[in-house]
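Quick one: structure tokens for this chain, please?
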Amino acid sequence: MLSSAKGAISVHFGLFEADLATGELRKKGRRVRLQQQPFQALALLVQRPGEVVTRKELEKALWPDGTFIEFDQGLNAAIKKARSALCDSPRNPRFIETVPRRGYRFIADVHVNRETARRRVAAWAMMLFGLVRSTAVLLMPDR
């Protein structure tokens, strides 16, 4: 199991890939529909495989200060939707385990897709290089 996927861009577990940068979940390459909050909960869990992510940590990540919701109902719905997208069960979990009165734990092996990360870093570098060149051209006086 990966000790920490924190900072990863794309992670694999089972038949799934989660692109943490775009918020997309895929199963065998096909996109799986998952709303933003359930994906955010899943993303937090896969970045800390094997660790308990507390209900309080999930609350802070999913609902900013000043948001008024029925927290237990909202969190339970987000986890239920994430489990549904993963074809997971709370009674016999393969991915998301409930830790009673504490939170949740991601129990599957998680692997960082380093190739995706390399491609994204290269794309960002090229974009930044292009911006720097464009800015330099704009700032240079005509000769």
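The radius of gyration is 19 Å.
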